[in-house]
C-alpha cells in the first residue's frame, strides 16, 4: 500500500473490514502483492481492535474500582 491506510471510524468498522479481508483472502483470487497488502492492513486493524479493547477494559476497571465484577447470569446488555 503506497499511502498510510485510514484509521477505522469505530471498532465495529474495523471488525467489518477485517471480515472483508478474510473473505477476500479465503477466496484465493488475490495476487501475491494484493494478499500481502490485505495481510498488512489486517494486522493494522487487529492492532487497532486490540488497543480499543484494552482501553475499554481500563475504563471498566476504573469504573469498578479496579475490581472487575462478573455480570449476573442472563444479562446481555
Overview of the structural elements:
It is found in: Cytoplasm. There is one protein chain. The protein is mainly α and 77 residues long. It has a domain at 11-63: Helix Hairpins. The chain has helices at 11-27, 32-63. It is elongated, with a radius of gyration of 17 Å. The mean pLDDT is 86.
Task: Write the topology of this structure.
Blueprint: H1 11-27, H2 32-63
Task: State the fourth-level CATH superfamily of one domain.
Answer: Exonuclease VII, small subunit
Which blocks of ≥5 consecutive residues have pLDDT under 50?
Answer: none
Query: What is the average of the pLDDT values?
Result: 86
Fill in the CATH topology of one domain.
Helix Hairpins
What fraction of residues sit in β-strands? under 5%
CATH class of one domain: Mainly Alpha
CATH architecture verdict of one domain: Orthogonal Bundle
Task: Give the end-to-end Cα distance, rounded to a whole number of Å.
Answer: 39 Å
Count of helical stretches? 2
Quick description:
The chain is mainly α. It has two helices and no strands.
Short descriptors:
single chain, 77 residues, mainly alpha, Helix Hairpins, 0% strand, elongated
Amino acid at each position: 500500500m503506497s499511502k498510510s491506510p485510514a484509521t477505522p471510524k469505530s471498532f465495529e468498522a474495523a471488525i467489518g473490514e477485517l471480515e472483508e479481508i478474510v473473505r477476500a483472502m479465503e477466496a484465493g483470487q488475490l495476487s501475491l502483492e494484493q494478499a500481502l497488502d490485505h495481510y498488512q492492513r489486517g494486522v493494522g486493524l487487529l492492532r487497532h481492535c486490540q488497543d480499543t479493547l484494552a482501553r475499554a477494559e481500563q475504563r471498566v476497571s476504573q469504573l469498578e474500582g479496579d475490581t472487575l465484577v462478573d455480570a449476573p447470569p442472563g444479562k446481555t446488555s
